[in-house]
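During the reporting period the student researcher (J.K.) took over the structure-prediction task from the postdoctoral fellow and processed the backlog of single-chain submissions. One of the processed entries is reproduced below for the supervisory committee.
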Amino acid sequence: MGLFSKLGFGSKAEEVPQIVQGESPALEGAELAVAYFSSRDGGDFHDFLRVGPQRLLFGLLDVAGKRETSEPVLQAAQACFRSAGEQIFAAAELNESEAMIELARRLNLEIMRAAGGVHSCPAFAGCYNEELGTVCYVNAGHTPGLLRDDAGVVELHATGLPLGLFSLAPTDARIVGLGANGSLAVVSRGVVEAESKDAEFGLEGVKGVMKAGPASAQDLSRRILQQVQDFMHGAPKHNDVTALTLARGN
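J.K. obtained the following structure tokens:
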């Protein structure tokens, strides 16, 4: 899939936004999926790429501003995500935490370079290790990720400030395990900020979908967006609305 099709440039929003199921990569014993509403005019973009025999890098970023004005920053961020990801994770043996921190550092500098200064970009990026069933992640001021297992759902809070604000902004990386039938969901701000009668869908709305039990990543990402639509009594148009999910089988 080309850069522009993934970012969503060159297409007008449909009159009635529809849920679109994105491309899914091949994984051993797990599934990664993304779904979004077709009315995309904000600065969200998702991407994933295989960076080793047992590692898959994925990310959901929210570049500040409308898509038409933030296009140069979006393109630069995604190009950096891919080129730096392939380079940093090329070694057969590496420290995943250090690699994720270095990826965040390069993305931060590239966003500032492309923007010509400060340009906020909350981001959640992770590396899934198929052999270990773990996710090493950085959360740069993004909506918390949600991790579900048999004990419940926990939030994966920010490990640093949004990218694009300070050239030397520190960040941290953390590692979580994805057990049998476990799942991880990362959603855009448009999901949690969906409103109906002065109430927000919020992270609790996403947790409610995840607590319903194990599901494939494709089913989970679509169900999250369907619940947003049901909550709003119509398709959302307020912002980019995206759900990226990772689910592990038995």
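The committee noted the following: The chain has a mean pLDDT of 90.
J.K. will present the remaining backlog at the next meeting.
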